[in-house]
Amino acid sequence: MPRYPTIPLVPAGRAAASESRRTALRLMAASAALAAGGCKGPPQTEILPYVAMPEQLVPGQPLFYASTFVRRGLAHGVLVESNMGRPTKVEGNPLHPATLGASDVFMQASILQMWDPDRSQTVWGSGAVSTWRAFETMLVPLRARWQQDGGAGLRILTGPASSPLLAAQLLALFARYPNARWHSYDPLQDERDAQAARLAFGRPADVLLQCERATAVVSFDADIIGGDWPGAIANARQLVQGRNSTATGFTRRLFSVEATPGLFGAMADNRLALAPADIDYLVARVAARFALTPAPAARTDPRLAGWEARLAAVLAQNQGRSLVVGGGSLSAPSRALVHLLNARLGNAGRTVIYIDPVRLLPGGAPGSIGALAADMQAGAVGTLVMIGANPVYNAPADIGFAALLKRVPLAIHLGLYRDETARRSHWHLPRSHDYERWSDARAFDGTASIVQPLIAPLYDSRSEHQLVALLADDPERNDYARLRRFWSARVGAFDFNGFWQRALGRGIIDGSAASPLVLPTAATLAPRPAPPPVRTGLLPLFVPDMRMDDGEFANNGWLQELPHPLTKLTWDNAALLAPATARRLGLEPGDVVRLALGQEAGQGNAVEAPVWILPGHADDCITLPLGFGRSAAGRVGDGVGFDAYRLRTAAAATGQATLAVTKTGRRHQFAPIQGNDRMEGRELVRVVGVDAFRRDPRVATAAPSARTPEQNLYPQYDYSHYRWGMAIDLNSCIGCGACTIACQAENNIPVVGKEQVRRERAMHWIRVDRYYQGPRERPRTLFQPVPCMHCEYAPCEEVCPVGATVHDSEGLNVQVYNRCVGTRFCSNNCPYKVRRFNFLQFSDQHTETYKAMRNPDVTVRQRGVMEKCNYCLQRITRGRLDAERLGRRIADGEVITACQAACPTGAIVFGDLNDPASRVNRAKASPLDYALLAELNTRPRTSYAARVLNPDPELP
Fold first, then answer.
1. Which residues are paired to 56 by β-bridges?
2. DSSP character for 326?
3. Which end of the chain lies in a sparser environment, N or C, as judged by fewer CB atoms within 10 Å?
4. Buried/exposed 805-820: b ≥16 CB within 10 Å, e otherwise
5. Rounded average pLDDT per 10-residue block, the chain, 956 residues
6. CB neighbours (10 Å) of residue 929?
7. How far lies 781's CA from each of 567, 777, 949, 953, in Å?
């Protein structure tokens, strides 16, 4: 059947000959109204812009609204840029504790998610297009039955949630239907955290890290700055304090013990790759030195003995000023020992704070998905309502959720996409995006904020609040009124309108953060049972992909084409192996292998996956990134990568299973964005030890190759007004890629697809190179963001036959699109390889929602045109016009590039080099500042601060 119903121009039963001029005009007017209704503009309820409400909308001037992006149930404060009622860009809210003015790749890509034409657009019932009215009619007899039997057989399955309003609605629903049950499932939620808290404290608790107070941070397989960790942006911002080019104390030392390489491991001064069982052993041995548990039998591995002794000594020397964190593959008892270590060392309340769980809604803990599956198997579920969950795709493999769903008489699904679960449900209901609905949510520290819409729903969608109201027969269907009434009851009537305006304008509800808990800890933990005997096969490690999360963003082309920070793969996931393990198995990158679970782990599930060799990976383990292999994600995400959830049984997820690996003899073509991971003798990323830096602060630029030649053949130009420049601190860069996605969103950069990436035609204006230093078994990972250098003596300008790449009066190397004839001489002559050519018509000129998404201040380029970073010229122009209107110069900090605004750690600084007091001048005055490929005498405006390492001299 057609996707959209056909509406005849001539009503049924009326002759076509009755059309007259007046009838035709009436139909034309109706068509115009229908077309105008397709772009609904701002919602009809009042919304407030960030800080100040302008008296009127000025065409061409964007407005910024404070709102909230909710991912995995947690609030991330955002400022959403609106151009004439169209949300086009996201920035972090500087007042919000989860973002601090920065952002991550998911926040930046949320704009593309909102405008995605593959989002669910209409109600589906019994496999056919339906309506909300039909769904509401179907609910009438159900509600009557639930009223009589107390909701027997009614089950609500939600994804992770922290909304206080939703919690209140669910409590009211279960008070109305006391026999109904609530279940919650997050495929990335690690139950071992809750188990560890119960072992250590006797109750669940969330952990807040205060990294800036710690002089020694020890991570046992916990990537605390990775996108999956709550508060990752705040943790990253704190870790770089005192460890950058303008705060050169470098007294904080970072230690990482991990199985799969992560962002914290790349940042650490000392790193050790170990299998999960060995990490558990090391935790127990260190804890035993503080009399927290009996010591396991000593092993003969000198590395383990050396790390045990040194970590114990460092922690003892930094009591009250250290921080120990556990996560990843670490077992629940080992995580509990981490809690006890922090308590014994006096870190609790200083470098680590405990609060009530944020995502545990009031009314008690929800049932698990295992309990729900048992009820479905027993036939106890009559109606299953799934809100923001996709269990057919990501539930534990041994549950067999798709088969169990067939046993449920009525399955209702509310989601952004008609995904795998929606297609197997009796009813699918389109869900409104965060920027289309009113709601609330709590951040990782408990701070509440309002989800404020920027635009009316693009499609016929509704929120989870409206669905729960339908289930409870609540007459209030307006989320705005419901949200105001809820918060009015919570804060009182002293000045609710003032409170409401502050909450909307600031993006946070002041004073709503969770209070710290003072928790008694167990004195010791009993020794763990002996590990099971060694079995053949590899231990599977399931990790969320740093771009796909749990699979929610699989249809997002920006994230599919974003290189993975460590593997640099695009449009794929891979089975990750250590170099030594790959050699032992006779595997090369691209080999396709069959991965099968042993019969003792479940059903003997098997998938085929390509292999990628990852330096620094632990031996005898295999890492399987989640979030790929979708079958109902949309036209972008379907069929990309392999589905690791098919191997993720309950036992395999907790390290109680092994995988058999068999070569298939087939090969897979990857699309990595970076071909070489070595610097080949060139000091592209300069690294110095902290002792050498303290002896000679200019050691990073002391080598002759690091100095810019004094002579040149170019004439000097006097930049009398503005002279723009950028400084990038490699001590702060964590390689997350937020700058790349922010630049893509700001500058209308197209997605080219896997085949074009393989042809080295990716269009990113700023890339993040990843290099390895040292042996492949235990290398040091280095990151380097590379935008256009804006060379003062630019080689590209000298070879362009039509003057399409030229210098402007403020020192920018600009690209004149109308002049470009596509010779690509400029790209060939650029030593930094930062120019991008439109070999094909990469920009989508036909999808209407993409047209509305684009930044109106940036030209959409055509085929045959060269493009590159221009320091966000449109933002410079806007800042200049605003300053001229006030009769002054642009103040420092008024022009912030997209990459600078997004960076979680503030690694990128931009400003006017003619302003002696500017931040960029202070950054460039650092003795660590150097120019990339300085020996070429291009005099780049973009410079770098060398990486300073503070490794423990007693560790290898």
1. none
2. E
3. N
4. bebeebbbbbbebeeb
5. 40 45 52 48 62 63 93 95 92 96 96 96 94 95 95 94 94 94 91 91 94 96 91 95 86 95 95 95 95 90 94 95 95 94 95 91 67 94 96 94 96 96 96 96 96 94 96 92 94 85 94 92 69 70 94 96 96 96 95 82 74 95 96 95 94 89 95 86 89 89 71 82 96 96 96 96 96 89 96 94 94 94 95 96 92 94 95 95 94 96 96 95 94 92 95 90
6. 19
7. 11, 12, 12, 19
H helix count then E strand count, the chain: 28, 38
Neighbours of 143 (CB within 10 A): 16
- Which stretches within 546-616 are classed as H helix? 557-561, 579-585
In angstroms, the CA 550 to CA 917 distance is 45
pLDDT of residue 701: 81
Q: Tell me the C-alpha distance between 104 and 552, whole Å.
A: 15
CB-based contact 450:509 (threshold 8 Å)? yes
- The SS3 call for residue 9 is coil
> Tokens at residue 54, please?
């302008």
Say if CB 724 and CB 911 are below 8 A apart: yes
Residue for token pair 């409401």:
500
Phi first, then psi, for residue 70 (nearest 5°) are -105, 120
Q: Is the dihedral of CA 836, 842, 846, 851 positive or negative?
A: negative
Number of Cβ atoms within 10 Å of the Cβ of 407 = 13
Q: Pairing relation of β-strands 780-786 and 767-773?
A: antiparallel
- The rounded distance, in Å, linking the Cα atoms of 76 and 72 is 10
Strand residue runs (E) in 396-544: 410-415, 427-430, 439-442, 448-451, 539-544
What is the Cα–Cα distance from 170 to 4, expressed in whole angstroms?
34
Q: Which residue has the tokens 């800890």?
A: 521
Q: Using an 8 Å Cβ cutoff, are 86 and 435 in contact? A: no
Pair of tokens at residue 42: 């701002």
Can you list the positions of beta strands (E) in 364-425? Answer: 383-387, 410-415
DSSP secondary structure, 135-191, as one string: HHHHHHHHHHHHHHHTSTTEEEEE-S---HHHHHHHHHHHHHSTT-EEEE--TT--H
Alpha-carbon gap, residue 870 to 874, rounded angstroms: 9
Q: How far is CA 271 from CA 224, 256, 317, 613, 952, in A?
A: 14, 5, 20, 19, 10
DSSP 49-76: -SS---SSPPTT--EEEEEEEEETTEEE
As to burial, measured by CB atoms within 10 angstroms (0-12 exposed, 13-18 middle, 19+ buried), residue 687 is middle
| 3-class DSSP string for 278-308 | HHHHHHHHHHHCCCCCCCCCCCCCHHHHHHH
With beta carbons less than 8 A apart as the criterion, state whether 74 and 441 touch.
Answer: yes
Residue 417's Cβ-count burial label (10 Å; 0-12, 13-18, 19+) is buried
Tell me how crowded residue 389 is: count the other CB atoms within 10 A of its CB. Answer: 25
User: Nearest Cα to 286, choosing from 197, 216, 192?
Assistant: 216
Parallel, antiparallel, or unpaired: how do β-strands 270-273 and 253-258 relate? parallel
Distance CA 564, CA 614 (A): 12
Tokens of 444: 């990782």
Q: Quick one: pLDDT at residue 365? A: 60
Q: Which two tokens stand for residue 71?
A: 């991912």
Residue with tokens 């491991």: 265
Q: Are 266 and 617 in contact (CB under 8 A)?
A: no
Closest by CA position to 567, among listed 471, 677, 460: 677
Q: Are 68 and 75 in contact (CB under 8 A)?
A: yes
Q: How far apart are CA 827 and CA 835, in angstroms?
A: 6
